[in-house]
Amino acid sequence: MKSSQLRTMFAEMDLVAKILTVIGTAISIFSIIVNCGIVLVDLWIYKAILMAGIFAMGFIPGMFEKDDQGKRGLKKAWMISVVFMLMGMIPCFYITKNIVRLQTFYGSVWTQWDIIFGVCFILATLELTRRCFGLAMPCIAVFFFLYVLFGKYLPASFFGHTGFSFERTISYMFSPAAMFGEVMNVFARTVFIYLLFGAFLEMSGATDFFIDLACSVAGKWRGGPAKVAVISSALLGTISGNAVANVATTGAVTIPLMKKTGYKDYFAGAVEAVASTGGQFLPPVMGAGAFIMAELLSLSYTDVIIAAVVPATLYFVSVFMMVDLEAVRLNLKGMLPDEVPDAKKVFREKGHLGIPVLALIYMLLVMKMSVTKAGLYSVVLIVLLSWLKKDTRMGLARIIKALYEAARSAVGIGAVISTAGLIIGTVGMTGLGTRFSSVILAIAGDNLFLVALFTALICIVLGMGLPTTAAYVISVSVASATMTRIGVPGLAAHLFVFYFACISTITPPVAASSYTAAAIAKAPVMKTGLYATMLGVAGYIVPFIFISSQELMLQGEFFSVLWAVITAVIGLASVANAAVGVFFARGIRWNTVQRILLAGTSIFLIIPGLHTDIIGFAAIAITFLIEKFKRHPQTAQ
Question: Which pTM was predicted?
């Protein structure tokens, strides 16, 4: 490792960047040391110190602004950021000094200082979340917080509860029961490690490897760049944990390529948004959602990803087919031969960078290693393997940059998870989840479809404008109990909620991934969002299927599972054909009647069952008979 590279890196930074790099590196190293067990620290103290670092990294940039020459200077209102930073950090250190008493009495006995520091921590968390993600998440959290205080004035039949004092509410929220609760545990022990994994992969050049690999595999096919976007965004999205960030990174490469090939700007943006969103529920990492889901359900990580693999695959198969059909409709070609990387060369130069991902999967699924330990080993493996090639070699400068980038990525996630703790605390204190499910069941009865439909709509609304993790945590806190009360297995209910929390990012009117992609593609915002909804149709359909029949979650006899998957693929192909209006073979364009038949066919084939399958296949036969009549009308005489 050359120290000259490190000196050069720091020489190019201004003072603020140097301070942030030091803080970020320290946070990451501290997390590694604690999670490796080198230093034994109480979990609440570890989370408090981690949050203190997040507050520092989150508010320091807000104190400065850059002039036209790119030099930083203090903002006029720089003291506001200082105040909020201290309001967040000091309570964290207060926890470390009073840990024994707080662990024993939180929520039941409190001091005046507990309440003061609790209020400060809540306000600082809400402000940091606002700066990272806008007003949506803080407003939702404040609404739930106010419900704890004033819900006693509501009728008992309409979400009313017995009431809680302000002091008790603050004491409860500022504790391991809420803002420092189970979800924060998963963030500190697991999610942060996989942020490190993603940052080290990027610094090693693995991102370029995945994009080049996708280009070498799919670039020559018709409409190749769109298929490259689907493959590369799926691979990177499962690790990134943020669909919008994934759109911004891979979209900068794939969207211009798609437009150059001949796809419309709005379609190119929609493809990237849908693929990046799908990466959030694609195993093995599922944007860190798998870890939180396993923790909340007290299941093994392996159980979660096994159940998730088929639905995620069906989603991407559907997107891939729609992209292909659009290429057929527009008669698009693939990338030019000189633009397609040679697969052998890609593997020869950067193939070693894909080994850590395969090793991670092996450690998790075969060796049954803990997710934290597997993540840490994978990070070490990235560094070791990077030294096999000079161009990918990670020296001290790259390692420090990776440590910093992981901590920087943790700022928004840590803030939003802490804010989500207010909602979790509200549900825990008031029993809101049970009350909410009672209202839905009173409206929908025991009708599984209606209950699922209401739940899906609520998840989409709650998840709008939020990152995947926050959307899932909020939605599952409120909505999952409804489904489990009518007999839906816990894992299926959580996966259902997770899908719709993720899908909210491409669902208008607040479709963050679609709008980010539209900005890169310079396309109409709403049109991009609507096309993304069409391309991601499998994400809206498949969850309804696996809550009623678990074959798509690989639960059941082998042949019943196989048949359910085959018919689901054919059903999704029918959806794609109906949506785009063409068949995979050139020259066949469906008329309105055929498209309606195909859309209906998809429903019957995706729903498991012999009778529905027979109806679906009959509808497909009628569709092709109509096509034969269109081509040879004299045969009907």
Answer: 0.82
